[in-house]
Amino acid sequence: MIARIALISTFALLILFAVSGCASDPSQGYSFSSVYDESIQSVAIPIFKNETTSRGLEVTLTESLIKEVQRRTPWHIAPTDRADTTLIGVITGADLTVLSDDPQTGLVQEQAARITIRFEWRDNRTGDVIIARDSYSASSVFSPSRNVGDRVELGQRNALAELAHDVISDMRSSW
User: Fold this and answer.
1) Which of 7, 68, 101, 132 has the highest CB neighbour count under 10 A?
2) What pLDDT, on the 0 to 100 scale, is given for residue 18?
3) Which H helix or E strand runs over 95?
4) Cα gap 37→56, rounded to integer Å
5) Partner residues linked to 129 by β-bridges
6) φ/ψ bin of 120: left (φ > 0), alpha (ψ from -120 to 50), beta (otherwise)
């Protein structure tokens, strides 16, 4: 009898904790609901424009964004005329900053590649802007020194991958 009462009490406490620990809105805490807007099924991502002198960044960023959507979201990629939403953007800056240099030779030891973009995610069904960001950037450190010999493209590619990850994270949390 005591064992049965203990079992029922334990079960009731578990239910109480489960119900009180979860929110119906995923933005309010733990939830069994999706963190993605379920009305959106598809996203179009045309190639970003590039206002910098660094060529090819727009293709690499667009490819990274598409891979992030496919890997981390329930949405699929579709052409603009058939997609529920469209993500458009412009690469506005591609800068290199010297972080350290060799005191004997003056050669650069570490540099940071910083990529800055402006983007807008628009609902094609209503015409509303879901999210828009300006001066959105990410940086990556690389070592162009003779010993390591990283190329500037490595730093840029890593910064673009970080940007893609951050943009998709913003798209997820924007609704």
Assistant:
1) 68
2) 59
3) strand 85-101
4) 32
5) 122
6) beta
